[in-house]
Amino acid sequence: STWLAVNDIEEKATAYINSELIQQGTATVKVTGKEGDMYTLEIDYNGQKIPSYISKDGKKFFPQVMDVAGGKTAKNDTQNAKADSEPVADAVETKSDKPKVELFVMSHCPYGLQMEKGIIPAVKALGNKIDFKIKFNDYAMHGEKELKEQLSQYCIQKEQTDKYLTYLGCFTKDGDSGVEGCLGNAKIDKNKLDDCIAKTDKEFKVIENFKNNVGFKGQFAGFEIFKADNDKYSVGGSPTLVINGAQSNSGRDSKSLLKSICSAFNNPPKECSTVLSGDAPAPGFGAGAASSGGSGSGGGCGQ
Predict the structure, then answer these.
(1) Cβ of 66: how many Cβ atoms within 10 Å?
(2) What are the residue ranges spanned by the domains of the chain?
């Protein structure tokens, strides 16, 4: 698809936001640039400037979860603005005895981190009742640090699987400055990890291609380890959740994610009644809930 003219995008986004997302007052929208296949926007509402994205053809709008008109949360329109207190579960049509849950993220994408923080308690509750894996998008929007972190996480999950969620839970809160502490905290065997990173990097030429500007998707570095799966499920941005082979539009809080995953069982186990938080974690690194509460389904990196 082609890029829609800037003034058309601004007009389209302004009309949509004012008619669908806010209760009172008006918002103005300004295109601030391009990122991947999207325009970056700045929405000015009640003196608040809110960064958002819209696809280049103007058909898909990616709001950040934002507090508008006294606690109404602007959400990704796929959620049909359900009440904040309800978990936004997305029922899976294809059932199985052991659901396969694949979450595609970029390690440093704020919204990918948000869903990782939300899904970890659900995955821990279900344990070996599901087949869970974090996989990475086939391009990275956050530079060399992201490529290196993804190589590291790929190796921990592959070779020191039982320690991965401990590491990931720590990394999503502490970020880059906490990596060494998180590796120690999860009791990761560093020699084994370094060997695996070197071997994997050699096989997929991740850093070499980055340095030589090879295999980029537009302006972003390629990351091809899970390329076949990205293609198979038509994965676009981060996060993309796939349950039993189908993309899920689940909310990003633990309660919604548990419910969405549990809808994929032929016979849901007792673990599915575990009581988890219905508050979406905040996007980005750190603990705490999203400022606007609710199940937090908006926002993503890439398309």
Answers:
(1) 22
(2) 6-74, 100-273
CB 124 within 8 A of CB 168: no
Q: Is 155 exposed, middle or buried (0-12, 13-18, 19+ CB in 10 A)?
A: buried
Alpha carbon dihedral 75, 81, 86, 87, in 10-degree steps, equals -50
Identify which of 278, 244, 274 has the alpha carbon closest to the alpha carbon of residue 261: 244
Cβ neighbour number for residue 180 with a 10 Å cutoff: 10
pTM: 0.72
Q: What is the SS3 string spanning 189-235?
A: CHHHHHHHHHHHHHHHCHHHHHHCCCCCECCEEECCCCHHHHHHCCC
Backbone angles phi, psi at 113, to 5 degrees: -60, -40
Size of the chain, expressed as the number of residues it contains:
303
Please confirm whether the linkage preceding 239 is cis (ω < 30° from 0): yes
- Report d(CA 219, CA 107) in Å as an integer: 18
Q: What is the CATH number of domain 100-273?
A: 3.40.30.10
Per-residue pLDDT tens for 66-109? 444 444 333 333 333 333 344 577 888 899 999 999 999 999 99
* Check whether domain 6-74 has CATH 3.10.450, yes or no: yes
The tokens for 211 are 């340095």
CB 266 within 8 A of CB 140: no
261 in Cβ contact with 274 (< 8 Å): no
Contact 266, 97 (CB under 8 A): yes
